[in-house]
Amino acid sequence: LQLVESGGGLVQAGGSLKLSCQASTRIFCGMGWYRQAPGKERELVATINFDGDTKYEVFAKDRFTISRVNARKSRIYLQMDSLKADDTGVYLCNVDCPSGVAWGQGTEVTVSP
């Protein structure tokens, strides 16, 4: 299983970005986004299960939207709006299945004040 993220970049505070994560195979379990800011530990952003149920960390509610729209359930998105400088970091895609956990390499998001 390989996970490939894309969509990161440099954006001004208040702007938007849409991240994408493509899995190399159909995923029958939960997927999610994590992030790691410079000098900080990795933290959960949002998750989505196979049925499309979502969960968000407090900082992501009302600003970020996770979605999983293709029939193969192999791609997820993270729409990020009203970005803040504190949202800067590497955003990583995650698959969490009973058989194991997989991570992508991450895509870098930089929000300028």
SSE map:
Blueprint lengths: L2 E4 L2 E4 L4 E7 L6 E7 L6 E6 L5 E3 L7 E4 L7 E6 L8 E9 L2 E4 L3 E6 L1
Parallel strand pairs: 2-11
Antiparallel strand pairs: 1-3, 3-8, 4-5, 4-9, 5-6, 7-8, 9-10, 9-11
How far do the termini sit from each other? Answer: 37 Å
Can you give the mean pLDDT? 94
Q: If helices are DSSP runs of H or I spanning 4 or more residues, what is the number of helices?
A: 0
Q: Strand pairing plus helix content: what structural class? A: mainly beta
Total strand segments? 11
How large, in whole angstroms, is the Cα Rg? 13 Å
- Beta content: over 45%
In short:
0% of the residues lie in helices and 53% in strands. The protein contains no helices and 11 strands. With 113 residues, it is an all-beta fold.
